[in-house]
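Input/output pair, single chain:
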Amino acid sequence: MSDRPNLTIVRSGPPGGGTWTGVAITVGGIVLGLAIAAAIPPLREAVLDAVRGNTDEVREDLRDLDGWGVVLVAAVAIVHAVVWFPAEILNAAAGFVYGFGPAFPLVLVSWTASAMLAYEIGRQAARPMLYGVLGRRRFREVESLINRGGITFLLAGRLVPIVPISLMSYVCGAARVGRVRMVWTTALGLAPITAYFVYLGSRLEEFSLGDPVVWVGAAGLLVALLGVRYLRLIPRGEAAGGGSE
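Output:
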């Protein structure tokens, strides 16, 4: 029998999981992304207009670029991973410029890609960044909702316009939601609200309160808000699909 003492190597890292290297790389990537966005005038102007909530100017930004406006839509959505603005502004602007048919798949794919980038940021930087954004207690409450609600919450949470796409993605990444599950629940969950605002944008020049889609969509958003509130009442373990893939 050896007399050598058992040694346990303890690796230090940021609180809540992850590694300091991952945090450093993530922060560096965010800074680089912001620098690139700031260095490209059309992208910089479009993002600033979106942050200001100026839908008319975003539409003009897209129109001025003609075919390159499609690239701008995707780029602005990607920037949302680190610069928050109402997603509905880009959805409505794209619908107005390109029409519902081309705009809907374009913005849905762009938002899904943006959400996955934010997910990776949350997964790599983990809790330290989120504690600063949300506060430790609130973050744990949201993480608990994800664990209790499972797939149901992941889908329903995407239907609520007041919840930034990237913020929920950060938390899902830190909570280690499976990537495959994250992709399909994001795309499916974002589809209804994305379609609604793209449609409103496409009908802007002939908008009418008599359009049934307007009222059906508004009712759907109300149901989504109530549904997410209901998930807060679900006891742990009773929601279906609570695991990760």
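The radius of gyration is 20 Å. Residues 7-12, 231-245 have pLDDT under 50 and may be disordered.
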